[in-house]
Amino acid sequence: MEKMRVAIVGAGPAGIYAADLLLKAERDFDVEVDLFEQLPAPYGLVRYGVSPDHPRIKGIITALRDVLDSGAIRYFGNVRYGVDVTLDDLKKHYNAVIFSTGAIRDANLSIPGVDAEGSYGAADFVSWFDGHPDVPRTWPLEARSVGVIGNGNVALDISRMLIKHADDLLPTEIPENVYEGLKANPIQELHLFGRRGPKYVKFTPLELRELGEVRDVDMVINEADFDRDDAYADETLMKNKQVVVMTRIMDKWRAEQKEREAGEIAPASRRLHMHFWSKPVAVVTEEGRVTGLKIERTAPDGNGGVIDTGEFETIPMQSLYRAIGYFGSPLEEIPFSEERGVIPNDKGRVLDITGEQIPGVYATGWIKRGPIGLIGHTKSDAMETLECLIADQDKLWSPEETAAEAIPALLESRNVPYTTIDGWHRLDAHELALGEAAGRTRIKVVPRDEMTDISRAE
Predict the structure, then answer these.
(1) Residue 296 vs residues 21, 160, 197, 220: alpha-carbon distances, Å
(2) Percent of the chain surpassing pLDDT 90
(3) Does residue 414 lie in a domain region?
(4) Of the N and C termini of the chain, which has fewer Cβ atoms inside 10 Å?
């Protein structure tokens, strides 16, 4: 092979890292990479899945932008795989395709009442406050008491966004409609539920510390959650430095709570209650609306798991968010595991229903391995896939049309208003200018057609 032409579907960190690593990999042939993204703007979950008050995490965009600006990769935004381009199209123009479409749906929680009005998935809420162009402009923020199920960073992100005063988010890039929605939020109490104990949480210390630093919010701790005898946690988990740090953070909150109860600290206007050893068993409803969450108290089983105790409690609330994990979405003509929410694969080589490798088709990122690991993990994940791709060069597709102008011509013939790297620069500059005019860093453009028109200078 003298030249390998590769299409990558999905321009989040996984797709961009895969493109970069492929271009830098040791090989004895040239490479051309085209990156396809269904949204007008690149960066995936870094733009649309990270809380706007996390600028440090979003700093990864600088590295991703450097890759896109290298001139070695073509970017086609606002192009939907399965609609605007098909698998047959890709076979006609490329030697292989790598799917890096991520996981943007909420994992299911199978308990009674979970589909009631006022019950939401974290992914949808995150998409709203991050200004995703394909979700409604408004969000029903009407509850004074809110529940969040989950003990991972996404649960903390949405808890922080719900409980935080909207004016404290003005230094961020939240869209105007999100600011107005959060400003009218009447929340007073937020309840965060975890099935296991405080030493088993999946948070990172940074996220947990930031939660306790939110202005005018008291952290409310149930002392009984810290009194359970759990030798496994004490002997095993406390060897982990992150667990030690998070335990200290929560111990600080416990001390502050005692000072409030003694009248030594004035109470805040909002409270965040942390409930551990609490397994959701049913959403309590009235006339189809959420009115509470029924939980069963759990206890340690001595091996890092939990057992049910038969003790139940119902916490009143008017809305509930589940943040128990993300889930992948099926792709046209590509095998999909409905059980795991991923494309079946062996080290990135996509497999058919019989377990045999499908030539020319690969996967990387969350659609490959599931929604686990931080953004940085996508690099090693992409490298594994690319090593397989390079080793398979004699098994790939033989494209009929490889001219550089073939893909733009194809999209134009189908009246697809695709965007480019230059178009993203125009949109980026426009958002920064909107922010500067308002004394902020950036204000996101939300409507898809407006994003596309700005990108295409139309």
Answers:
(1) 48, 25, 13, 19
(2) 85
(3) yes
(4) C
